[in-house]
UniProtKB/TrEMBL annotation:
Species of provenance: Marinomonas profundi
Record keyword Lipid metabolism present: no
Pfam families: ParE_toxin
InterPro entries per the UniProt record, alphabetical: RelE/ParE_toxin (IPR007712), RelE/ParE_toxin_dom_sf (IPR035093), TA_system_RelE-like_toxin (IPR051803)
Alphabetized UniProt keyword annotations: Toxin-antitoxin system
Membrane spanning residue stretches: none
Coiled coil, from the record: none
Family per similarity comment: Belongs to the RelE toxin family.
Protein name: Type II toxin-antitoxin system RelE/ParE family toxin
Amino acid sequence: MELRIAQSALEDLQAIQEYYKEQDVPHIGDAFVAAILGHCGVLQIHPDAGRVVPEFNMDHIRELIHAPFRVVYLRQAKEVMLIRVWRSERQLELPANET
């Protein structure tokens, strides 16, 4: 199964890197992003590995937890699309065209 990254998730990952860069520890941001993407690799083989996102309760909107982040993705017939990467304590909002 193909793993794709939506623009919204890409911007989230870039924001993570930028935050750690501003804290003068850019290597931490790079490591977090690499680890998050590595963790998401499991979705290519096991697209149901994440749980259904409680806020939406829709089977195709799922999340993997990579503390302290939650990676929200859409499970589709032939691909998995990462759509958000947010800190766990934030209120989840999805772009209107991503659901």
